[in-house]
């Protein structure tokens, strides 16, 4: 009687059984995807719904009280009403753009990226030239949902 092969009866590895988890999205932190792999289908569906809600929240329009800042507002223009996809593409574009590139665009063109505001700013006590400007700013939400602004050059007077 030959020795039985102790490995013969062992269950196949997870790979062999086709039980490997799908690869997580490239570059996503392990601390994010690893706990997800352990969840039930029911909870994963709830997570999916919650993610949708979070995205909606982080992409909500900038409200008037969030556009407040230093100095006085000489003029402002609300953002263009773009589809979610176009708005995201515009945000990516904006984050890559330099002030020099932004200076080339009209106020109307800048509204593609967010709320456009023309401000005059004070510098300090004792200055005879205050307020300075006007300066153009684009106010928008960054990818974390935080309101931020980007300088777009000096605005034309009047
Ligand atoms: Zn000044």
Description:
The protein has 158 residues and is α+β, with helices and mostly antiparallel strands. It has helices at 30-37, 41-58, 84-96, 99-103, 107-110; strands spanning 72-77, 115-121, 132-141, 147-154. Strands 1-2-3-4 form a four-stranded antiparallel beta sheet. The protein contains five helices and four strands, in the order ααβαααβββ. It starts with 29 loop residues before the first helix and ends with a strand. The protein is rod-shaped, with a radius of gyration of 26 Å. Bound molecules: zinc ion.
Bound molecules: zinc ion
Bin the helical content: 25-40%
Unreliable sequence segments: none
The total tally of domains equals 2
How are the elements arranged and paired?
Elements: H1 30-37, H2 41-58, E1 72-77, H3 84-96, H4 99-103, H5 107-110, E2 115-121, E3 132-141, E4 147-154
Antiparallel strand pairs: 1-2, 2-3, 3-4
Zinc ion is lined by residues 122-123, 127, 129-130, 132.
Quick overview:
This protein is α+β, with helices and mostly antiparallel strands and 158 residues long. It has 5 helices and 4 strands; from the N terminus they run ααβαααβββ.
What would the keywords be for this entry?
single chain, 158 residues, alpha+beta, 2 domains, four-stranded antiparallel sheet, 5 helices, 20% strand, rod-shaped, binds zinc ion
